Every structure is written in structure tokens, then in C-alpha cells.
Amino acid sequence: MAVGIGFDIHPLKRGRKLILGGVPIDFPLGLDGHSDGDAVLHAVTDALLGATGKGDIGDWFPSDDRFRGADSRDLLRKVRRQALRGWKVENADVNVLASRPVLGALKLAIRQSIARLLGIPASRVSVKGKTARGLGDVGKGKAIAAQAVVELRRR
Ligand code: MG
Fold first, then answer.
1. Is residue 111 within 8 Å of 126, Cβ to Cβ?
2. 24 CA from centroid of ligand 1 (Å)
3. How many CA atoms are closer than 13 Å to the CA of 63, on its beta-carbon side?
4. Among candidate residues 37, 41, 39, 34, the one with its CA nearest the CA of residue 67
5. CA–centroid distance, residue 22 to ligand 1 (Å)
6. How many whole angstroms from 111 Cα to the centroid of ligand 1?
7. For 63-106, how does the pLDDT look when each residue is reduced to its tens digit (9 = 90+)?
8. What is the dihedral angle through the alpha carbons of 14, 37, 142, 94, rounded to the nearest 10 degrees?
9. At residue 71, what are phi and psi to the nearest 5 degrees?
């Protein structure tokens, strides 16, 4: 087996669509970034790459014209196809750090979306919310961050 860890943080900006874990969320601000800014899927993708020792998301998808506005689901799917050959995902545990929007009602949809993208049942995916209680850029509602751990097993 192999374990990988991923982290990401993006600033919240006006005029961007908010997408977390591949789920579009109705909110006046979105995550700024070269791609769609989906910090949750970026953390999961980096965890997959970490577990397989195949670099990081920046190595795979540099900030050039090819990946401008990229759908992070496509980035994860490509990593799954190319880096995870011979491996299957056992489980994923994800922390989403956001003081806004309130994550409560969104966690299930994010969990199901990540599970679908990883090709595993939602029961093998955990999505936990943290508000940071007013501390730092996350706590002040200026950014959203995510942490992910994945476990892989040889097929
Ligand atoms: Mg990112």
C-alpha cells in the first residue's frame, strides 16, 4: 500500500465561480487560480501523486495556456489514468477549511463528487469541514484551503 498527502489554498475573489470538490456552489465569490481554482480537488490530486511518488500538480499541469481555466475534474482524471496505473484507491480523507460559505449542507455533495472521480463508493471518502474560527485568511473568509490523505493499494 501507499499513502499520500495533499494541501492547497486559493484566495476568494469576486467574479469567479466557486467550485469545491468538483461541485459548483452558489456563492458570490469564487476561488481565484489559473485553473478553476478548486483547492479541494487540487489537494486530492496532489495526494494521489504523493502516494505514487510522481511529482506534484504543478509538474503535471504548469500555469501555462494549456491549463488556463482548466476543469480540475479533468486534471484529477488524467492523474488517475496515468499515475495510478496498477493502483486502486482504498480511501480518501479530506479536510475543507472555509469560514464561508458554510459547508454543512455541501459536504455530502462534495463527498459524492470526490468518490465518483476516484471510482470508489462514497463510504470510502470522508469530507470534514473546519472554519478556522476567525484566524488567518481562511478564518477571515479571504481564502479556502484543503488537506487530503489517500491510501492506495496495488491491484
Ligand atoms: Mg491549486
1. yes
2. 16
3. 5
4. 34
5. 13
6. 19
7. 999 999 999 999 999 999 999 999 999 999 999 999 999 999 89
8. 140
9. -80, 115
